[in-house]
Amino acid sequence: MTKFSALSLVKNALTGHKGWTEQWPECEPKKEYDVIIVGAGGHGLGAAYYLAKEHGITNVAVIDKGWLGGGNTGRNTTIIRSNYLYDESARLFDHAVDMWQGLSQELNYNVMYSNRGCLMLAHNVHDVQSFQRHIHANRLNGVDNRWLTPEECKEYCPPVNIDKNARYPVMGGALQERAGTARHDAVAWGYARGAAARGVDIIQNCMVRAIRRGPDGAVMGVETDRGFIKAKKVAVSASGHNTMVMETAGVRLPLESMPLQALVSEPVKPCFPCVVMSNAVHAYCSQSDKGELVIGSGTDQYVSYSQRGGLPLIEHTIAAISEVFPIFNRMRMLRKWGGITDNTPDRSPIIGKTPVKNLYVNCGWGTGGFKATPGSAHLLAYTVAKDEPHPINAPFSLERFTTGRLIDEAAAAAVAH
Ligand SMILES: Cc1cc2nc3c(=O)[nH]c(=O)nc-3n(C[C@H](O)[C@H](O)[C@H](O)COP(=O)(O)OP(=O)(O)OC[C@H]3O[C@@H](n4cnc5c(N)ncnc54)[C@H](O)[C@@H]3O)c2cc1C
């Protein structure tokens, strides 16, 4: 693997860019692996990378039914933040935010992490109280978050409309300055490259049809489009399709799969310096380095595996964007798309062991798992390698739905991206 450096860039520029090696090889499955990871999104590829790098487990395959990063990793609006209410969530998401800071250097791959800040606008008394509660809880957990007046919001993000006569006037906002965005594809590519360099096989265009269990009930391997592949351990990280894969092992997950949509505008010059979220009006927006406004919509109100989502949600989102940022009223939208999200009842993820021996799951990230990618990958690798959860992901077990120890970020935030 060629190491990216200023020197290698100059050298290759002078020699017609012929010296670059492939980033990861096309692999045919071996007969047997120590660990198989189902799903080559950021979480699955990252878990393979940390299994190899931190636990010395390199006989690993990551298998995807499509191309790597083609699931929600390559479809999301890339908002990264850790200002969640509950202690468990703050620890989980802040672990990831910590890891984002040095990820490009760690992977020797520019994931374009930009901590430009995330501003959450309050439009009513309930928003004000709820965000101030979040700020206090976050500070107790060492997570940065502070309150801005409407004028300070405008100063931080000039396109925000703070006209007091607006239908939903801005009454202030909660700002997490360490929050931001990253380049989603680069995260998948960087982890894939790092994992492949350590001996991990990445197998694309190969659907996992079923998980096979032996006579003792433990995992034996996976049935795929390219035949049966034996494995000592299997970790499923298949996002919107987790329920379908896990059902084949006899494990039912408390998840509902729903399409979530996003859209981008025509590119314009830099005018939007941060991420802004408005939960009440339900608009959220940032600007990509290409200049497009990246706009997030909501989930459809019904379960579905159709990867496109309904038009009424896009209309609602555009209305909300026009309300909060009237300066964008006449911009043209370029394209929209959807991804299938896997949502738990408490809108917190599940990372851990399952009732089946040697079968692990990483799921339930719903509409907000991109921000957690390095953290969740790191914790999944730990859990698989040690056969026990890391203290950070221990509360995010599957059992919480039987014990009742939910981590109810759904009720706390009313939005999850
Ligand atoms: C429109 C949209 C906007 C979003 N915005 C944000 C945001 O701003 N911030 C944020 O934090 N999160 C956001 N999210 C959520 C985030 O994208 C996901 O939580 C995260 O990317 C999940 O990563 P993953 O690696 O678990 O899943 P994925 O990237 O979806 O990877 C799972 C992989 O599993 C594969 N797979 C499925 N079934 C099988 C099978 N049977 N066999 C083999 N492979 C299989 C799929 O092909 C896929 O590549 C958004 C999601 C969407 C759809």
Keywords for this structure?
8-stranded mixed β-sheet; globular; FAD/NAD(P)-binding domain; 2 domains; 417 residues; 29% helix; binds flavin-adenine dinucleotide
Q: What order do the helices and strands follow?
A: HEHEEHHEHEHEEHEEEEHEEEEHEEEHHH
Percent strand: 15-25%
Rg from C-alpha positions? Answer: 21 Å
Instruction: Give the bound compounds.
Output: flavin-adenine dinucleotide
What is the straight-line distance between the termini?
A: 35 Å
- Supply the CATH architecture of the largest domain: 3-Layer(bba) Sandwich
- CATH H level of the largest domain: which superfamily? FAD/NAD(P)-binding domain
Number of strands: 18
Main sheet overview: 8 strands, mixed
Global structural class: alpha/beta
- The CATH topology name of the largest domain reads FAD/NAD(P)-binding domain
Number of domains: 2
Question: Which whole number gives the mean pLDDT?
Answer: 96
Number of helices: 12
Shape: globular
State the name of the first-level CATH class of the largest domain: Alpha Beta
> Which residues form runs of ≥5 with pLDDT under 50?
none
Question: Portion of residues in helices?
Answer: 25-40%
Cofactor: FMN; FAD
GO molecular function: nucleotide binding; sarcosine oxidase activity
Keywords: Cytoplasm, FAD, Flavoprotein, FMN, Nucleotide-binding, Oxidoreductase
Catalytic activity: sarcosine + (6S)-5,6,7,8-tetrahydrofolate + O2 = (6R)-5,10-methylene-5,6,7,8-tetrahydrofolate + glycine + H2O2; sarcosine + O2 + H2O = formaldehyde + glycine + H2O2
